[in-house]
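Retry 2 of 3 after timeout on previous attempt. Resubmitting structure tokens to design endpoint.
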């Protein structure tokens, strides 16, 4: 019995010792696990922080990529617009250049026609001055026309109401007619200016009538006596309102035919545009 009790006591002690050792080992293992868990939790938190930071960076990069794409699309669109605008500007410049070249041709055509017309007038002026001799001071160029101013006393005598061309005047008109017949492309306007305020002659109504009759008398003399083509001549009566001085005068205006001048310019422009 004693042996049994002793054996039981020994076994109890041994079991208690083993239990104590296992408990200690278990506690150590638990502490170890706790440390590992704590470490793992720390690492997990670090990983979560890193993941969050990474997600933030990714989102930032995605936003930047989106902005870059939008910027690139905008740049491409602007480049397209700029290219189209540059193309239109180039086309407009080419159109403007062509228009300027065309206008330059037209201006040259007009200038050439004017130069030709001016040369004709200068030649006519020279011929008339040579023909009239001492009467040459009555000739001038005004407003693009050759102008011959003859006092009414020279053409019609001392009677300021007369519209009969004097013999002396026919000598002068004959010289003018010779120059006009040498230039058949020029037209002639005879402008009468009268200043007979007291008209008693019943054949004359007023100064309008008198100035027109005096101009017509000059044209009639050029036609009948010196064979100047009547189709080239016109009569213009200005009464006393056309006078530029106290002494009345009749003016013979010699100019190129403007309809022919216009036709020449128009034809040259048409030919120039075909080149």
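Retry 2 succeeded. Sequence:
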């Amino acid at each position: 019995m004693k042996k049994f009790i002793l054996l039981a006591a020994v076994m109890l002690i041994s079991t208690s010792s083993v239990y104590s050792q296992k408990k200690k080992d278990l506690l150590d293992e638990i502490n170890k696990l706790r440390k590992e868990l704590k470490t793992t939790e720390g690492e997990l938190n670090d990983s979560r922080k890193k993941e969050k930071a990474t997600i933030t960076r990714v989102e930032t990069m995605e936003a930047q990529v989106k902005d870059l794409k939008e910027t690139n699309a905008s740049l491409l669109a602007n480049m397209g617009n700029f290219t189209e605008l540059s193309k239109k500007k180039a086309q407009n410049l080419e159109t403007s250049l062509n228009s300027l070249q065309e206008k330059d041709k037209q201006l040259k055509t007009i200038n050439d026609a004017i130069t030709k017309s001016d040369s004709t007038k200068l030649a006519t002026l020279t011929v008339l001055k040579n023909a009239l001799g001492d009467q040459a001071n009555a000739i001038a160029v005004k407003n693009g026309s050759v102008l011959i101013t003859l006092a009414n006393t020279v053409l019609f005598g001392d009677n300021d109401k007369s519209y009969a061309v004097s013999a002396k005047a026919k000598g002068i008109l004959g010289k003018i007619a010779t120059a006009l017949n040498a230039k058949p492309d020029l037209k002639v306007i005879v402008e009468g200016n009268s200043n007979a305020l007291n008209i008693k002659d019943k054949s004359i109504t007023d100064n309008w009538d008198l100035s027109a009759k005096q101009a017509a008398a000059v044209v009639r003399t050029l036609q009948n006596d010196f064979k100047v083509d009547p189709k080239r001549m016109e009569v213009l009566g200005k009464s006393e309102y056309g006078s530029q001085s106290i002494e009345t005068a009749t003016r013979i205006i010699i100019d190129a035919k403007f309809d022919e001048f216009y036709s020449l310019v128009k034809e040259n422009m048409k030919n120039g545009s075909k080149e």
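Attempt log closed. The domain at 118-264 is CATH 3.30.1330.60 (60s Ribosomal Protein L30; Chain: A;).
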